[in-house]
Amino acid sequence: MLSPSTTSIDFSATGNAAYGSKRVPVESHAPGVAASPMSTNPPANIQASSRARSLMAALRVGRGWRLCVDGTVWTSLSGLPSHPVAVYVRAMAGSVRVYIACSLDGFIATQDDDLDWLTNRPTPSDPLPPDPRAVSFEAFLGDVGVMLMGRRTYDVVSSFGDEHWAYGDLPVRVLTRRALQSTRPSVAAVSGDLASVVADALETAAGKDVYVDGGQLIRQALDAGLVDELIVTWIPVVLGEGRSLFAGTTKRHEMEFAEHLSFPGGFVQTRLRPVRAGSA
């Protein structure tokens, strides 16, 4: 896992013979700070190179940090330039992420919003050992600076009472066109263009992630190309009907599995990333 303290990267396992077995030095840079060249014959302006303009995909290589090669952010270690000039780690804004549980047939709640299928689970007879890399809700929330919640989801969660409010003092922005009554100072109503709302949330999050929750809002954010990652925990139950996670999107969305892990309770957790045009 790369981080701001990373000093070199071993590219020997990438399959790119041009890198050989050498470890390429890394420089750590804050946002807006240009990289120093890593070779004796660099271009005069790395940021103006064609590679720098060819790819703008984001790679999570550590909380809030991205891998850049020759001024370009890369999504994997495959297909890298044959003769790297600059390799460095750069601070980037937080990501827009989804963390949600889902039935095997794709529902996140029953039609009447009952969550008993999720909270009152039978004990598995022979569960897989939990993977320590699986992300708990508490760990996920620790990386979040702002939560964006759909109005219907907020109304349902609020109806459970204060004792079941799981977000503490985390700033929660509820997308709604109706008046919002809340006794929590951390909760505020927002409205307008979703891309602008997300941009404002990222700014407020100050480098941490934005958590998007609520089926309709998740689908809208996907359709708008605003979601960076989805962590979906699959519950071994078939509901037959309910409120769908993905049905209702207005377009096709290619995804890639970044990770799949056994989760405590006999569940399976998958980390999904939308595939965007032009990503490496």
What do you see in this structure?
The chain is α/β, with parallel strands linked by helices. It has 2 domains: 8-91, no CATH class; 96-274, Dihydrofolate Reductase, subunit A (3-Layer(aba) Sandwich), CATH 3.40.430. It contains 6 helices and 16 strands. It has helices at 50-54, 116-119, 137-142, 151-159, 194-205, 215-223, and strands at residues 8-10, 23-25, 27-29, 65-69, 72-73, 87-91, 96-103, 107-109, 144-150, 172-175, 187-190, 209-213, 229-235, 243-244, 255-263, 267-274. Strands 11-10-9-12-7-13-16-15 form an 8-stranded mixed β-sheet. It is globular, with a radius of gyration of 21 Å. The two termini are 19 Å apart. Mean pLDDT is 74; it is low at 1-9 and 11-66.
Summarize the structure.
This protein has 280 residues and is α/β, with parallel strands linked by helices. It has helices at residues 50-54, 116-119, 137-142, 151-159, 194-205, 215-223; strands at residues 8-10, 23-25, 27-29, 65-69, 72-73, 87-91, 96-103, 107-109, 144-150, 172-175, 187-190, 209-213, 229-235, 243-244, 255-263, 267-274. 16% of the residues lie in helices and 28% in strands.
Oligomer: single chain
Q: So, CATH architecture of the largest domain?
A: 3-Layer(aba) Sandwich
Radius of gyration: 21 Å
CATH class call of the largest domain: Alpha Beta
Task: Please tally the β strands and state the result.
Answer: 16
User: What topology, given as strand order, has the largest sheet?
Assistant: 11-10-9-12-7-13-16-15
- In what range is the share of β-strand residues? 25-35%
CATH homologous group name of the largest domain = Dihydrofolate Reductase, subunit A
Number of helices: 6
Helix/strand class: alpha/beta
Mean of residue pLDDT?
74
